[in-house]
Amino acid sequence: MYGLEMAKGLLVTLTNLARKPFTTSYPEQRVKQHPRFRGEEFTWYEERCTGCASCAKYCPLGIIKIVTSPSETAPLQGDKYRLEVFDIELQRCMFCGLCVEACPYDALFMGSGFEEGQYKRTDLVITIDRLRQADKHPSTWFRPQLEGMDYRPGVSRPLGWREVGREGWRWHQHEKAGMRLTGSNTTRDSGDEA
Amino acid sequence: MRCITTPENMLSPEGAFGGNPLFYWIYGLAAHLVPCWLAYVIAGLVIMLILINAVLLGAAIVSWGERRLLGRFQNRVGPNRWGPFGALQPIADLTKLITKEDIIPYGADRLAFTAVPVIMVSSLLVATAVIPFAKDVALVDLNVGVLFILAVSSLTSIAIFTAGWASNNRYALFGAGRAVAVLISYEVPVVLSLLGVVVVAGSMSLGDIVVAQAVPFFLVQPLAFFVFLAGMSAELNRTPFDVAEAESEIIAGYHTEYSGIKFALIQAAEFGGALFVSGLIATLFLAGWAGPVADWLGWLWFLIKTFIGIFLFVWIRSTFPRLRLDQIMAVCWKFLMPLSIINLAAVVLEVYFLRDASGTLSTSDLWIMAGINMVVAVVSIAFFGRIIRQKIRNSSRTMTASAPMVRGVPTIEVG
Q1: What is the residue range of A169's domain?
Q2: Binary contact (A13, B389; C-beta < 8 A)
Q3: Does A178 map to a domain?
Q4: Is the distance from CB of A80 to CB of A71 less than 8 angstroms?
């Protein structure tokens, strides 16, 4: 390293000095976000959720807490529970996405955000109210139907609950007992199901 | 005017404050209001205050510029949050460090521990006194300036060892031991390379050395420049010789236990040291304030040349990996040491044969020396580079082979 090699090394660093830095100055510039990004805030569609608590059961860390009460519309059939608590404790979440994989009704999606710094631990718990009020920018992770739509969570508009389901299933088009459908364009055709 | 305000008639034999025009201006101003002796003291204090602030502010700017430049060397941006191009970063750093808790570890020698940052900063500031920033603008133009700088800047090694001892921390002690080993070894080639400069200039005064550089000395004695650069990198504990604070081996070396304002002072001393050594390189090898246009622009040439020195240090830091301690010793004693002796011998012979009857060297003589010394430098660097490369290979091989033979760990006996 003494002699010519030293000069060679110095030349290498000098060429790097002349190069443009490829740092992204984060708050001002952002890198393009992949649509399958598993973001921090979860996107939840209450209309699609039956309260089956699959997500809570599949969570490896057990950080999803769901408390339900019997359905107000069809309590005996029990296919739709009223949700009272839906807490996701983000401080221990590892964003594996198993809850999203487990959801049979496409009600839970990963989010698209990543700036969830808080001053208190309690603020890191996503409550049901926060889930209700949040803008719905679902990640396309484990949701191929959104990728088919070419949906970009960070850029595109928020999606309503009717747009995010797997159309082949046609689950939501046939309202089962207790499904709280507010719109009028839902087909109530039970023949398809057979 | 009641007081004498011309350089010729001032109190000291050399003309106090190196004939510094700013000093005489303040002196004349203050002499209207207060007695002569008080005006003299006030003017001196004002000049010192200006110098201290300039050096510390320069250290802050260097700390920002170095991080910024190092970032660009590594294809990063560097600090860019505070102020334009992150230029207020040192202020943010200092605010953070001042507001932090000032911890003195349990079992530390409180007095020595507290004294270290003071010694480091003050030795830096005292050493800066003799550097001529422009024509006749130095705090004091000592006729033994080079000797003074060597003596005062050696205080740093004492401070570093005190820091390591007083911290009551084994990593600090390791760092201090390494630092002192490196500092003492590298003092020798540095002094020998400076001796070459002194021989050619015929004076130890930094002002005279600048005047003597009709041809900048980095051309006249490239070997001395090279040795001085390498040796000063080691003296400043900078890469590739930064074993003293090798953060991947011993946490932060001798300043492991320092925090808050003490750490800020140590950092100021380190960056100020880089600035000071760059100024020294500018003065000794790049012809200091001497420049093409006019004498009153001297400060500008000096600043530009100092920046060249800092750029060289950052460039070296971004390029070379850290050497092992035994490799550093090998580089010092087997590579830089012979080079500096060769340089000194060549320079002494050339001066002996080239000087005229009155003992001075003309510009053409300097150019002849530059030509000869360039050849000497290339040949000797190639020759000793080859030798040292083989030695280092062999030594690392024997070290690996003999490593299992080591029985105990070295212990330090506390009396």
Answers
A1: 31-173
A2: no
A3: no
A4: yes
Residue A14 in any domain: the answer is no
A159 within a domain of the structure (yes/no): yes
As given in the structure block, the two tokens for residue B318 are 């971004």
CB-based contact B320 A9, cutoff 8 Å: yes
Q: Is the dihedral of CA B130, B132, B136, B139 positive or negative?
A: negative
pTM of the model: 0.77
Residues of B in contact with A21 (CB under 8 A): 71-72, 75-77
Contacts of B385 in chain A (CB under 8 A): 2-3
Q: Chain A: give the shortest CA distance to residue B75, in Å.
A: 4
CB pairs below 8 Å between A and B: how many?
44
Task: List, for residues B156-210, the tens digit of each pLDDT value.
Answer: 888 888 888 888 888 888 888 888 888 888 888 999 999 988 888 888 888 888 8
Find chain B residues with C-beta within 8 A of A14's C-beta.
315
Is there a domain that residue A68 lies in? yes
Q: Inform me whether the C-beta atom of residue B383 falls under 8 Å from chain A C-beta atoms.
A: no
Strands (E), B250-409: none
- pLDDT tens for A18-48 read 888 888 888 888 888 888 888 888 899 888 8
Q: What is the ipTM of this complex?
A: 0.70
Distances in Å between the alpha carbon of A87 and those of A53, A107, B120, B204? Answer: 12, 15, 57, 77
Tell me, what CATH number does A71's domain have?
3.30.70.3270
The pLDDT-based confidence of A152 (bands split at 50, 70, 90) is confident
User: Which of B76, B319, B331 comes nearest A13 by C-beta?
Assistant: B319
pLDDT tens for each residue of B260-304: 888 999 888 889 989 999 999 998 888 878 777 777 777 888 888
**DSSP assignment of B169-229:** -HHHHHHHHHHHHHHHHHHHHHHHHHHHHHHHHT-S-HHHHHHH-SS-HHHH-HHHHHHHH
How many separate domains does chain A show? 1
Q: Do B75 and A10 touch (CB under 8 A)?
A: no
A16 at interface of B, judged by CB pairs closer than 8 A: yes
